[in-house]
Amino acid sequence: MSAESKLMTMQEAIERHVRSGSTVLLGAELEQMIPFAAGHELIRQGRRDLTLIGPISDILFDQLIGAGCVSRVMAAWVGNASAGLGYCFRRAVESGIPRPIDVVDYSNLTMALALHAAALGVPFLPTYATLGSDLLKKNGNLREFRSPVSEEKLVAVRSLRPDIAILQVQRADAFGNAHKWGSLGVAVDGARAARKVIVVTEEIVEPSVIASDPNRTLIPGFLVAAVVNEPWGAHPSPVQGYYGRDHAFFAEYHEQTRKLGDFEGWLARWILEVPGRREYMKRLGPSRIERLSVREHAFSRPADFGY
Amino acid sequence: MSAESKLMTMQEAIERHVRSGSTVLLGAELEQMIPFAAGHELIRQGRRDLTLIGPISDILFDQLIGAGCVSRVMAAWVGNASAGLGYCFRRAVESGIPRPIDVVDYSNLTMALALHAAALGVPFLPTYATLGSDLLKKNGNLREFRSPVSEEKLVAVRSLRPDIAILQVQRADAFGNAHKWGSLGVAVDGARAARKVIVVTEEIVEPSVIASDPNRTLIPGFLVAAVVNEPWGAHPSPVQGYYGRDHAFFAEYHEQTRKLGDFEGWLARWILEVPGRREYMKRLGPSRIERLSVREHAFSRPADFGY
Amino acid sequence: MNARQRPPAEFAGRSSCRALWEMTLPVALYSPGELMVTAAAREIADGELVFVGMRLPMLAFLVARRTHAPRSIALYENGTIRQTPSTEMLYTMGDPANLCGATQCGQMLDVMGLLQQGRVDVGFLGAAELDRFGNLNTTWGRRDGELRRLPGSGGACDIACLARRTVVLLVHDRSRLCERVDYVTSPGYGTGNGWRRAQGLPEGSGPSAVITTLGVLRFGSDGEAYLASLHPGVSVEQVLANTGWTLRVADELVETIPPSGQELAVIREFDPHHFWTRSDER
Amino acid sequence: MNARQRPPAEFAGRSSCRALWEMTLPVALYSPGELMVTAAAREIADGELVFVGMRLPMLAFLVARRTHAPRSIALYENGTIRQTPSTEMLYTMGDPANLCGATQCGQMLDVMGLLQQGRVDVGFLGAAELDRFGNLNTTWGRRDGELRRLPGSGGACDIACLARRTVVLLVHDRSRLCERVDYVTSPGYGTGNGWRRAQGLPEGSGPSAVITTLGVLRFGSDGEAYLASLHPGVSVEQVLANTGWTLRVADELVETIPPSGQELAVIREFDPHHFWTRSDER
After folding, report:
1. Which residue among B120, B151, B251, C250 is least packed, with the fewest CB closer than 10 Å?
2. Cβ(D139)–Cβ(D152) under 8 Å?
3. Is C88 a catalytic residue?
4. Residues A171, B207: Cα–Cα separation, whole Å
5. B152 to chain A: which residues are within 8 Å by CB?
6. How far apart are CA C57 and CA C125, in angstroms?
7. pLDDT per residue over D37-75, tens digit each?
8. Active-site position among C48, C77, C129, C224
């Protein structure tokens, strides 16, 4: 192949491609495939003033906020999907601890449309969603206008172009062409909306594997700046076909981060004292890993691309 | 399963679901998977005053126009993709033969956006495409306006909701849940934009085959009114993994339809005298079928949906 | 088995609860959460497209699908469309069990498009606060007079704006059912009759039922909520005392029909540890 | 082998022409179509995203990809993105050989979105008519004074509006290169300098080169076309006589470099029967 390999470690990828002050799309797939390993590396490398973008975000946003990396959140929902609130988020918004953050509230649809607008290369997209809501009143990126074709009221959702999208996938080649399946959420648009993409993959495969099923290629390599081979990089969130959701981990996080001091202990234990994903997996322990591993495979029926 | 089978013959599907005067989306996948068998049945059943919708359409539009079924075409391109002009189209537009037709000229992107708008449930979508062109001046469904968020000039593409979309797929279950791969074009939006969908499938499979790969389900069954199992239903256009493109057939059509009388002969030979696809395939002959059949399979690498 | 009692951990797992399916349990033994799930399930008619969301409504859909609405179809915001029930309890819509064997896994906009087209019959929502006109707040809650930041809309605002009907589930107390919400995350009938159309929201859309821990509220043509059904053992006075405005009461007030044995069996098959139905506040 | 001679049918097929790849053919033996394909290929720089379209440009991309631009990437309107050349001649972008082994097969909007984002470096267009300012007409042609209906835009208008550069291929005669097109299917520089920005088209976009059967035209900063390169054996007078307006000529007029043996080998590998390059009018 004439293209150059984009393979690098998570440490390198974050070092090279994410600066303090960047806008970062994370958790585009909702409750699946959240790039926790990448988020933890952002924390370890001490990024500051990040703007986080994502639909529901789950506890990765909460951790980044608690670690002081974030000055702004643009999201539809920030919390813990199975356990409820995110305490760090609440502390930051209500009390400015560890630092104040600005929250720009979207709904899921308006967040999806903001990224879709950027992916389509237009300044906005129209919707009826949020009419009559306080999201429309408070979020400056949502603006009521009259339809030019029907005189109806509509909301213009301004396009949102993240500096970087960090997207977890099942398999990719070294050039960033990536297969992704299961929960898609806003990931396809996210990859195209962003100025740069970091692909975090469970497996590196030959380009011929990707080319065997071009309809499953949801991220073309020319959009990708870095490819990180990081198995279990999404734990405690699940990756379809690779590992399940560690529900208990989310519950424990909820219990162990209620108070600021407790969160700091959690942060040290699971992120700061851990150099990388390998060590993290050791802390998780083999029996937990075993419990989350795929028990029963369910392979897709092949599609024939022959002629 | 508690759902009811939607399986029927092509004759029944067209009889029940396409009336004269309907707007019909055909050829959503561009040069692949054009539902010729369905178009031929429309001709045999003598539908009139159809509005045809499609991006490039290839020679199926030309045939329907030549057979007098059409009063309006909304498309980006009408002709013969590998051989050039469509003579019936030209005769109808220039001389009203066999009857005058109204042409609403789109570009591919504005056609895609018109269907996408309908699929998203909004009255229009914005684009920069067609600014400065005569398409914008002549097509009433394209309207210049000022962006509500940026003061730029934009074109509002009005949503387009076909009464029926006829979509060719590789495999579907009896309830209309369909796997589709290869060339997608505007088919995904087309299925959602239309009020009703007829799925024409190369194979009927068990629901478990569809459910084995939900990312490949591009048409969910609840949108589907009829499922027609019609192998080779797209000939002379190709279906990835099933048969190739019959380039010679397109060239022959070009040669054999230059003059009105020649077209009438072609129409009788390939459509009017042929009761259905089985007879059509007989006329095609075994050696031609053999030549178009898949010579070398190329199966996609499976994706694991297990957990 | 007492529904309030948690079954032993050994009793959990993918198929070990299948036996329950066949059992006919005594109807009286159910938790408030189970009653709410059942009442929510009954808001789904057969063949309907349902925007499911998280938590109790995930169970409600399963109950409906397995009892009176076998042709109903579930849509999830992650892009998933599902016709068959998943094979195990779900903690989130993104659990692998919810995607494996799904009818379609698409993008968020694929399902949101169906919602905005008006094809979705009913959407389910939770809420921290609900007011007299069915407006919901999940962004800024008030506790002890102080504003507390809540997680936000997720897809709730979209569903409230665009589904034909919405069904709300929440705990019934004065702080949650209030005269006027502090922040309209998800619009109901706004300030009453005609308000939704004036905002530009789709005709005929809006909240249809509010299922609380005490009863079921519905809405008059003026957009104001009224008490339509009381849960067994609950009095009108109790409801009024726990509602932050003077709630109207239906002339023909009925009693909420308790879960049947079959309904309870489904709930317990999918929530064997009462993760969702133990309390009603998750 | 004389390029104008059709090779025998037995010589066709998926890989039988591979041997040509290694051959160095005498440079003089090429058809006008082959020269145009080569000139078009040279408009592609390495690493660029190319909106390919149909007919001659399909071959031009293959030539570029296999010679000087091995990292260029092809986008097709049916949603296909392809990094490796297909294994056989293509009659249309939707031929199974173009999809099998592609990098991505998505929807039309996936590739059109990249175009509208401004990520596409160069797009190729054919035309029935082109005027002084590079405006194209493929909707209503004029033959013998009569308007004739042509197939229409396809994606041409979109590419002309949104690609950073566009490269046009057409036959050079007075009826095709005309003062002003009857119908602007695909806007070039409109009426000249500043017109595109005034219309709202993206900054810096517009036609970059016109490759005809006689030479190559480029555009001045005022948006007007000028003759930049003459094909071997063609005179300036011949070009002017076949152009429907008074065409400006570059001070430093050059001669179009003929196809190399390697370039011809690629063309003949993928178009063994000269289906596309036999005439130049397809």
Report:
1. B151
2. yes
3. no
4. 27
5. 123
6. 8
7. 999 999 999 999 999 877 888 889 999 999 999 999 999
8. C77
